[in-house]
Amino acid sequence: MPSSKLDRDPETTWGYYHKNFVVRRVYFKRLKMALSLAGEQKNRSILDVGTGSGLMLPSLAGYGVVSAVDSSLEYVARARKLCHAEKINADIRHANVDKIPFADTFFDVIFCLSVLEHVKDLSAAVSELKRLLKKDGMLIVGVPVERIAVNILFRLFGASEIVKHVHCSDFMDVEKSLKKQFYVERSVRLPSFVPENFSLYKVFVCRKIL
Prior knowledge:
Blueprint: H1 10-13, H2 21-36, E1 44-49, H3 57-60, E2 64-70, H4 73-86, E3 91-94, E4 107-113, H5 122-132, E5 133-144, H6 148-156, H7 160-163, H8 171-181, E6 182-190, E7 201-208
Parallel strand pairs: 1-2, 1-4, 2-3, 4-5
Antiparallel strand pairs: 5-7, 6-7
């Protein structure tokens, strides 16, 4: 990861192919952190919500049957192009996070990275993720930590376009919404050695409350 066949247009891959090495490293580090939390078990049904250009799909394909959704038709097309090039049989659909066209309790693992901060109705989105997850499944949610120190850091490294993007919710809103409908089994932050408000990204591992 990443795939050499990924379309590396910086306008549609955000910080993953930013001109600054530190920004690129932060973006890929948070993906690797999320992937590491899913474990090594194979033959699972996996959903990537908000797949974007399909950056994670080649890695996810090694762990089971992969599906993905995105609200952008352009991103859906890019993700399908990548999977075709990589010979990955992934079911990629156009959908919003609050209305995903799959059956109840369909997935063993759901990834939802850098998505929920864009959502106004967090309750509806989290309910939909809960509906899709098997009773013993795992939901992995990642959100940026937006604080003054973080924004200053990105600006120092020439990534001011990232902090200009307006989000509907912050990481605390997302955490509260998750805890209303899931048991948050674990949370990790990047970097792990700094206080939460000075970190860059936070990932939650969630289980259904039975």
